[in-house]
Amino acid sequence: MRAVVQRVRRASVEVHAQTIHAQTIGEIGPGLLVYLGAARDDSDADVQYMARKIAGLRVFSKEGDGKMTASLLDRERPDDASGEVLVISQFTLFGDVRRGLRPSFDGAAPPEAAEAHYEALVQALRSMKLCVATGRFRADMLVRSEVAGPVTIQIDTRKLY
């Protein structure tokens, strides 16, 4: 499982972005924007590890001192400035361009398995009492974000083994 995590001031996601009927389906204030890709061989252990890493990432400052010492789990109140997560499914994180210019996605999980892992990660984050918004799995989406810092972190559960 792979994730690209960005600290944001705000982020939102729309579906049907190319039509006149675009609809915002997920929106957060300050927090984390997570692009998530599932691999063919991911398991529940990968999902749980990823959820703990995302929730525990110390990329926020506790007292405005500019030091990254606080995580989403360190919120003191529900409306704390580090409190929300927007999770977007993104199989293209497994795009392999070592041969040619057209990406191969052979390493990505099939859609049914990827969706199950995506939903499991969202539920794991919610079980930690985090406010989680989502995109729509397999939809064409438009993601808007205001990245703070910028802070962008990559997490790959394959690097554990």
The H/E string reads EEEHEHEE
Tell me the count of domains.
1
Shape annotation: globular
Low-confidence stretches: none
Structure description:
By secondary structure, this protein is of the alpha/beta class. The chain has one domain: D-tyrosyl-trna(Tyr) Deacylase, Chain: A. The protein has two helices and six strands; from the N terminus they run E-E-E-H-E-H-E-E. Strands 1, 2, 3, 4, 5 and 6 form a six-stranded mixed beta sheet that branches. Helix 1 links the parallel strand 3 and strand 4. Helix 1 crosses helix 2. The longest helix is centred in the last third of the chain and has 17 residues. The radius of gyration is 16 Å and the shape is globular. The protein starts with a strand and ends in a 5-residue tail after the last strand. The model has no long low-confidence stretch (mean pLDDT 91).
Offer a quick outline of the entry.
The chain is α/β, with parallel strands linked by helices. Helix content is 19%, strand content 33%. Helix 1 (44-56) packs across helix 2.
What brief labels describe this structure?
about 160 residues; 6 strands; globular; six-stranded mixed β-sheet; D-tyrosyl-trna(Tyr) Deacylase, Chain: A
